[in-house]
Amino acid sequence: MRSINYKNYLLKSMRTKRESVEYFLDAIKLCLVIRKKRIPLTRKEFKIIELLYENMVNIAIYREINEVIYGN
Description:
It is built from three helices and four strands. Strand 1 (16-18) and strand 2 (23-26) form a beta hairpin. The chain has helices at 2-13, 43-54, 62-70, and strands at 16-18, 23-26, 31-34, 37-40.
């Protein structure tokens, strides 16, 4: 049930995060696309990459990564 809720959240909140033509996160297919090559990710891997992707100019601390993986 939890994975279905997360998938629905992804579908509602963002379709495809495009920052660059070279690379982007595809929330629908849960993958990272680099130069037209799709790298499939697990749900947890996607969450971590998403956190890092959204905070490219900031440092993600261990606590934030832990919260993304395991919740509060």
